[in-house]
Amino acid sequence: MSVLERGVRGVLIALIVLFFLFPIFWIFLMSFQTNEDILRIPPSLFFAPTLSNYAALITGKLVSNAGTLDIAFMRNLWNSVLLSTASVVVALILGVPAAYAFARFKFRLGEDIAFTLLSFRFAPPLLVLLPLSLYFQQLGLTDTYVGLIWVYQLIALPLILWIVRGYFEDLSPDIEYAYRVAGHSWWRTFTRIAIPLAGPGIAAAGLLAFIFCWNNFIFALILASASKQPVTVGALAFVTASGIQYGQIAAAIVLSVAPTLALALYAQRYLVEGLSLGALKG
Protein backbone atom coordinates (compact mmCIF):
# COMPACT_ATOMS: atom_id res chain seq x y z
CA MET A 1 0.00 0.00 0.00
CA SER A 2 1.47 3.33 -1.10
CA VAL A 3 1.83 6.42 1.06
CA LEU A 4 -1.02 8.13 -0.79
CA GLU A 5 -3.37 5.18 -0.24
CA ARG A 6 -2.52 5.06 3.46
CA GLY A 7 -3.13 8.78 3.73
CA VAL A 8 -6.51 8.59 1.99
CA ARG A 9 -7.48 5.62 4.13
CA GLY A 10 -6.53 7.46 7.31
CA VAL A 11 -8.56 10.53 6.30
CA LEU A 12 -11.62 8.41 5.48
CA ILE A 13 -11.40 6.54 8.80
CA ALA A 14 -11.06 9.86 10.66
CA LEU A 15 -14.13 11.26 8.90
CA ILE A 16 -16.18 8.16 9.72
CA VAL A 17 -15.14 8.25 13.38
CA LEU A 18 -15.90 11.97 13.54
CA PHE A 19 -19.33 11.41 11.97
CA PHE A 20 -20.36 8.80 14.53
CA LEU A 21 -18.75 10.38 17.60
CA PHE A 22 -19.77 13.99 16.96
CA PRO A 23 -23.29 13.61 18.51
CA ILE A 24 -21.71 12.20 21.69
CA PHE A 25 -19.17 15.01 21.74
CA TRP A 26 -21.90 17.63 21.24
CA ILE A 27 -24.04 16.19 24.06
CA PHE A 28 -20.97 16.25 26.31
CA LEU A 29 -20.52 19.95 25.53
CA MET A 30 -24.21 20.62 26.13
CA SER A 31 -23.94 19.17 29.61
CA PHE A 32 -21.71 22.13 30.57
CA GLN A 33 -23.97 24.79 29.05
CA THR A 34 -27.03 26.67 30.19
CA ASN A 35 -30.27 26.56 28.22
CA GLU A 36 -29.48 30.02 26.82
CA ASP A 37 -26.15 28.81 25.42
CA ILE A 38 -27.70 25.65 24.01
CA LEU A 39 -30.56 27.46 22.25
CA ARG A 40 -28.34 30.20 20.89
CA ILE A 41 -28.51 30.67 17.12
CA PRO A 42 -26.11 30.06 15.52
CA PRO A 43 -24.62 27.48 17.91
CA SER A 44 -21.06 28.04 19.06
CA LEU A 45 -18.28 25.90 20.47
CA PHE A 46 -17.18 28.77 22.70
CA PHE A 47 -19.09 29.29 25.95
CA ALA A 48 -18.60 29.72 29.68
CA PRO A 49 -18.75 26.17 31.10
CA THR A 50 -20.87 25.50 34.17
CA LEU A 51 -21.33 22.55 36.50
CA SER A 52 -24.85 23.58 37.50
CA ASN A 53 -26.44 20.81 35.42
CA TYR A 54 -24.48 18.09 37.21
CA ALA A 55 -25.06 19.80 40.55
CA ALA A 56 -28.81 19.74 39.93
CA LEU A 57 -28.71 16.01 39.22
CA ILE A 58 -26.62 15.15 42.26
CA THR A 59 -28.53 17.37 44.70
CA GLY A 60 -31.96 16.52 43.25
CA LYS A 61 -32.93 20.19 42.90
CA LEU A 62 -33.84 21.38 39.41
CA VAL A 63 -34.10 25.17 39.08
CA SER A 64 -36.43 26.32 36.29
CA ASN A 65 -38.56 29.33 35.43
CA ALA A 66 -41.41 27.79 37.45
CA GLY A 67 -39.25 27.51 40.57
CA THR A 68 -37.31 24.67 42.16
CA LEU A 69 -38.39 21.14 41.31
CA ASP A 70 -37.40 17.95 43.11
CA ILE A 71 -35.92 15.27 40.87
CA ALA A 72 -34.70 11.80 41.78
CA PHE A 73 -32.09 11.19 39.11
CA MET A 74 -29.53 9.58 41.45
CA ARG A 75 -32.19 7.24 42.82
CA ASN A 76 -33.17 6.37 39.24
CA LEU A 77 -29.51 5.73 38.46
CA TRP A 78 -29.24 3.39 41.44
CA ASN A 79 -32.44 1.63 40.31
CA SER A 80 -30.86 1.04 36.89
CA VAL A 81 -27.75 -0.47 38.48
CA LEU A 82 -29.79 -2.70 40.80
CA LEU A 83 -32.30 -3.89 38.20
CA SER A 84 -29.76 -4.52 35.45
CA THR A 85 -27.24 -6.29 37.70
CA ALA A 86 -29.80 -8.48 39.46
CA SER A 87 -31.53 -9.36 36.18
CA VAL A 88 -28.27 -10.44 34.55
CA VAL A 89 -27.24 -12.50 37.60
CA VAL A 90 -30.58 -14.35 37.58
CA ALA A 91 -30.37 -14.82 33.80
CA LEU A 92 -26.85 -16.25 34.07
CA ILE A 93 -27.88 -18.67 36.83
CA LEU A 94 -30.79 -19.93 34.73
CA GLY A 95 -29.40 -19.47 31.23
CA VAL A 96 -25.89 -20.93 31.38
CA PRO A 97 -26.96 -24.47 32.47
CA ALA A 98 -29.83 -24.34 29.98
CA ALA A 99 -27.47 -23.26 27.19
CA TYR A 100 -25.14 -26.15 28.04
CA ALA A 101 -28.04 -28.60 27.98
CA PHE A 102 -29.21 -27.37 24.57
CA ALA A 103 -25.66 -27.53 23.21
CA ARG A 104 -24.67 -30.97 24.53
CA PHE A 105 -27.88 -33.00 24.74
CA LYS A 106 -30.35 -33.77 22.01
CA PHE A 107 -33.88 -34.31 23.26
CA ARG A 108 -37.37 -34.14 21.88
CA LEU A 109 -38.64 -30.62 21.12
CA GLY A 110 -35.29 -29.21 22.22
CA GLU A 111 -34.96 -26.88 19.23
CA ASP A 112 -38.59 -25.83 19.51
CA ILE A 113 -38.15 -24.90 23.17
CA ALA A 114 -34.97 -22.97 22.41
CA PHE A 115 -36.64 -21.08 19.56
CA THR A 116 -39.66 -20.31 21.75
CA LEU A 117 -37.38 -18.79 24.37
CA LEU A 118 -35.62 -16.78 21.67
CA SER A 119 -38.96 -15.49 20.37
CA PHE A 120 -39.53 -13.75 23.72
CA ARG A 121 -36.61 -11.50 22.87
CA PHE A 122 -38.16 -10.34 19.60
CA ALA A 123 -41.75 -10.01 20.80
CA PRO A 124 -42.88 -6.37 21.00
CA PRO A 125 -43.07 -5.27 24.66
CA LEU A 126 -46.52 -3.77 24.11
CA LEU A 127 -47.76 -7.24 23.17
CA VAL A 128 -47.21 -8.59 26.69
CA LEU A 129 -47.66 -5.48 28.81
CA LEU A 130 -51.43 -5.81 29.31
CA PRO A 131 -51.42 -9.46 30.51
CA LEU A 132 -48.28 -8.78 32.54
CA SER A 133 -49.87 -5.83 34.32
CA LEU A 134 -52.93 -7.96 35.16
CA TYR A 135 -50.81 -10.83 36.45
CA PHE A 136 -48.66 -8.44 38.46
CA GLN A 137 -51.73 -6.99 40.18
CA GLN A 138 -52.97 -10.47 41.10
CA LEU A 139 -49.57 -11.60 42.38
CA GLY A 140 -48.75 -8.37 44.20
CA LEU A 141 -45.67 -7.71 42.05
CA THR A 142 -46.72 -4.29 40.74
CA ASP A 143 -44.19 -1.58 41.64
CA THR A 144 -41.65 -4.01 43.10
CA TYR A 145 -38.02 -4.72 42.27
CA VAL A 146 -38.75 -8.45 42.18
CA GLY A 147 -41.44 -7.95 39.56
CA LEU A 148 -39.20 -5.82 37.34
CA ILE A 149 -36.29 -8.26 37.65
CA TRP A 150 -38.68 -11.05 36.67
CA VAL A 151 -39.96 -9.23 33.59
CA TYR A 152 -36.42 -8.22 32.62
CA GLN A 153 -35.77 -11.91 32.04
CA LEU A 154 -37.65 -11.45 28.76
CA ILE A 155 -34.66 -9.33 27.72
CA ALA A 156 -31.67 -11.00 29.34
CA LEU A 157 -32.47 -14.73 29.43
CA PRO A 158 -33.02 -15.37 25.67
CA LEU A 159 -29.93 -13.32 24.82
CA ILE A 160 -27.68 -15.22 27.24
CA LEU A 161 -29.19 -18.58 26.31
CA TRP A 162 -28.53 -18.28 22.59
CA ILE A 163 -25.13 -16.58 22.76
CA VAL A 164 -23.72 -18.96 25.39
CA ARG A 165 -25.18 -21.94 23.59
CA GLY A 166 -23.12 -21.03 20.53
CA TYR A 167 -19.95 -20.85 22.61
CA PHE A 168 -20.62 -24.26 24.18
CA GLU A 169 -21.22 -25.75 20.75
CA ASP A 170 -17.84 -24.44 19.59
CA LEU A 171 -16.08 -26.22 22.45
CA SER A 172 -14.80 -29.69 21.69
CA PRO A 173 -16.66 -32.26 23.82
CA ASP A 174 -13.58 -34.51 23.85
CA ILE A 175 -12.08 -32.61 26.78
CA GLU A 176 -15.26 -33.13 28.79
CA TYR A 177 -15.45 -36.81 27.85
CA ALA A 178 -11.88 -37.33 29.03
CA TYR A 179 -12.71 -35.66 32.34
CA ARG A 180 -15.84 -37.81 32.72
CA VAL A 181 -13.86 -40.98 31.98
CA ALA A 182 -11.60 -40.08 34.90
CA GLY A 183 -14.61 -40.64 37.16
CA HIS A 184 -15.96 -37.13 37.62
CA SER A 185 -19.67 -36.32 37.65
CA TRP A 186 -21.58 -34.33 35.06
CA TRP A 187 -21.95 -31.36 37.40
CA ARG A 188 -18.24 -31.32 38.21
CA THR A 189 -17.42 -31.50 34.51
CA PHE A 190 -19.79 -28.62 33.82
CA THR A 191 -18.36 -26.37 36.55
CA ARG A 192 -14.67 -27.31 36.26
CA ILE A 193 -14.29 -27.72 32.47
CA ALA A 194 -17.16 -26.28 30.43
CA ILE A 195 -17.71 -22.99 32.29
CA PRO A 196 -14.00 -21.99 32.50
CA LEU A 197 -13.49 -22.73 28.79
CA ALA A 198 -16.58 -20.73 27.83
CA GLY A 199 -15.81 -18.01 30.37
CA PRO A 200 -15.10 -15.23 27.85
CA GLY A 201 -18.31 -16.01 25.99
CA ILE A 202 -20.36 -16.07 29.19
CA ALA A 203 -18.85 -12.75 30.28
CA ALA A 204 -19.56 -11.16 26.89
CA ALA A 205 -23.15 -12.40 26.90
CA GLY A 206 -23.66 -11.10 30.44
CA LEU A 207 -22.28 -7.69 29.57
CA LEU A 208 -24.44 -7.41 26.46
CA ALA A 209 -27.50 -8.45 28.46
CA PHE A 210 -26.63 -5.80 31.07
CA ILE A 211 -26.57 -3.11 28.38
CA PHE A 212 -29.93 -4.21 26.95
CA CYS A 213 -31.50 -4.27 30.42
CA TRP A 214 -30.05 -0.86 31.21
CA ASN A 215 -31.56 0.65 28.06
CA ASN A 216 -35.05 -0.76 28.63
CA PHE A 217 -37.79 1.85 28.90
CA ILE A 218 -41.31 0.55 28.40
CA PHE A 219 -41.49 -2.18 31.08
CA ALA A 220 -40.48 0.09 33.96
CA LEU A 221 -42.66 2.92 32.65
CA ILE A 222 -45.82 0.81 32.92
CA LEU A 223 -45.07 -1.62 35.75
CA ALA A 224 -43.35 0.65 38.30
CA SER A 225 -43.82 3.97 40.02
CA ALA A 226 -41.28 6.79 40.20
CA SER A 227 -39.51 5.24 43.21
CA LYS A 228 -38.65 2.05 41.29
CA GLN A 229 -38.12 3.42 37.79
CA PRO A 230 -34.67 3.34 36.14
CA VAL A 231 -32.82 6.27 34.68
CA THR A 232 -34.30 5.79 31.20
CA VAL A 233 -37.76 6.61 32.59
CA GLY A 234 -36.56 9.14 35.15
CA ALA A 235 -35.25 11.36 32.34
CA LEU A 236 -38.87 12.34 31.62
CA ALA A 237 -38.73 14.57 34.73
CA PHE A 238 -36.68 17.11 32.78
CA VAL A 239 -39.61 17.89 30.51
CA THR A 240 -41.47 20.40 32.68
CA ALA A 241 -44.37 22.78 32.20
CA SER A 242 -41.95 25.70 31.95
CA GLY A 243 -39.91 24.09 29.19
CA ILE A 244 -37.36 21.42 28.43
CA GLN A 245 -34.17 21.50 30.50
CA TYR A 246 -31.70 20.61 27.75
CA GLY A 247 -28.61 21.07 29.91
CA GLN A 248 -29.84 18.69 32.59
CA ILE A 249 -30.92 16.20 29.94
CA ALA A 250 -27.44 16.26 28.40
CA ALA A 251 -25.80 15.82 31.81
CA ALA A 252 -28.16 12.94 32.59
CA ILE A 253 -27.27 11.28 29.28
CA VAL A 254 -23.56 11.57 30.07
CA LEU A 255 -23.97 10.06 33.54
CA SER A 256 -26.31 7.29 32.37
CA VAL A 257 -24.29 6.34 29.29
CA ALA A 258 -20.93 6.29 31.07
CA PRO A 259 -21.44 2.90 32.84
CA THR A 260 -22.69 1.11 29.74
CA LEU A 261 -20.01 2.71 27.56
CA ALA A 262 -17.32 1.52 29.98
CA LEU A 263 -18.81 -1.97 29.96
CA ALA A 264 -18.99 -1.99 26.16
CA LEU A 265 -15.32 -1.04 25.87
CA TYR A 266 -14.40 -3.61 28.48
CA ALA A 267 -16.46 -6.31 26.74
CA GLN A 268 -14.58 -5.99 23.46
CA ARG A 269 -11.72 -8.11 24.78
CA TYR A 270 -14.10 -10.85 25.91
CA LEU A 271 -15.93 -10.80 22.58
CA VAL A 272 -12.66 -11.40 20.73
CA GLU A 273 -11.66 -14.15 23.14
CA GLY A 274 -15.09 -15.74 22.85
CA LEU A 275 -14.89 -15.82 19.06
CA SER A 276 -11.55 -17.61 19.31
CA LEU A 277 -13.17 -20.50 21.19
CA GLY A 278 -13.85 -22.19 17.87
CA ALA A 279 -10.11 -22.91 17.58
CA LEU A 280 -10.57 -25.66 20.17
CA LYS A 281 -13.14 -27.51 18.10
CA GLY A 282 -12.10 -30.63 16.24
Describe, in plain words, how this protein is organized in 3D.
It is a single chain. With 282 residues, the chain is mostly helical. The protein has 2 domains: 3-70; 73-280, Orthogonal Bundle (MetI-like fold), CATH 1.10.3720. The chain has 14 helices and 4 strands. The protein has helices spanning 3-30, 35-38, 52-59, 73-104, 110-122, 125-139, 145-151, 153-170, 173-181, 186-197, 199-214, 218-223, 231-234, 246-275; strands at 61-64, 67-70, 239-240, 243-244. The strands form 2 sheets. Strands 1-2 form a two-stranded antiparallel sheet. A hairpin with a 2-residue loop joins strand 3 and strand 4 (243-244). Helix 3 (52-59) crosses helix 14, helix 4 packs parallel to helix 8 and helix 9 (173-181) packs antiparallel against helix 10. The radius of gyration is 24 Å and the shape is globular. The model is unreliable at 278-282 (pLDDT under 50).
Spatial strand arrangement across the major sheet: 1-2
Strand content: under 5%
| The CATH C-level class name of the largest domain | Mainly Alpha
Under the CATH scheme, the architecture of the largest domain is Orthogonal Bundle
Uncertain spans, ≥5 residues at pLDDT below 50?
A: 278-282
Number of domains: 2
Radius of gyration: 24 Å
Shape: globular
Q: Give the CA-CA distance, first to last residue.
A: 37 Å
Q: What letter string, H or E per element, gives the SSE order?
A: HHHEEHHHHHHHHHHEEH
Query: How many strand segments?
Result: 4
Number of helices: 14
What is the CATH homology-level superfamily of the largest domain? MetI-like
Arithmetic mean of pLDDT: 82
Helix content: over 70%
- Largest β sheet strand count, sense and barrel closure: 2 strands, antiparallel
According to CATH, the fold-level topology of the largest domain is: MetI-like fold
Structural class: mainly alpha
